[in-house]
Amino acid sequence: MGEGCRLPARPGTPAISGLSPAAPGTTLPRPVNATPADLASNLASVRARIHAAEARSGRRAGAVTLIGVGKTLPAETLTAAVALGLADVGENKVQEAEAHQRAVGRGAARWHMIGHLQRNKAGRALELFDWMHGVDDAELAGALDRRAQAAGMRLRVLIEVNVSGETSKFGVTPEGAPELAEDVAALAGLELQGLMTVGAPVARPGDARAGFARLRELRDALAQRLGHPLPELSMGMSGDFEVAVEEGATMVRVGTALFGARSSQGGA
Predict the structure, then answer these.
(1) How many structural domains comprise the chain?
(2) Longest dimension (CA), the chain
(3) 2 inside domain
């Protein structure tokens, strides 16, 4: 994943206050325990754990992209993380991405939409994000494609697959993924790069392995069916990202392990 926007030289790390006002459009709780020292230590720790998992699975160092999840973060915390070297940021909501980019800067990181996107926000999302992880139906893909072609660009996308079968989760079924992949691959404004999943909650990290392996196997089958590589697998979060790396993840989406647990204050 060497391509993407150019990252400027990073400024000094700003101070981080204990708790910031909610970003527009959300009432979710905020982390309150992230200090500059915590962030630097956490970032180094997560990277070391990723590199160890790469080595255990016989993969080259640097094969996996760390995406820091910006959900509910105060803007100054995310700004500090980017200043410390976090190059990729994942956002669940368009309005939070807008608020964060006003503080961090659009070109200061690569921005990933990792939440569910409503079709009526496709145009704005195209301006905000370099990667779209959650394409899960042909209608959304078509809306993104029309916007991308009108802008004279190609948007890198991943198809979200619900490998756990949970009714509370978005994503196409594994059985429906081949047809959707063929539809997306045929769109001139989209560049299908691979698959994404949100794993089921597990008691132990190892319990997530079967789901991650299933996504990898599905990706391999789809690449053969389409006749071209699908290099990216976005899977694994704070509780299980090492297992995801061992099973072939190329992108891991990490929030709590970087920024700390969320406070019970400020919302449900």
Answers:
(1) 1
(2) 51
(3) no
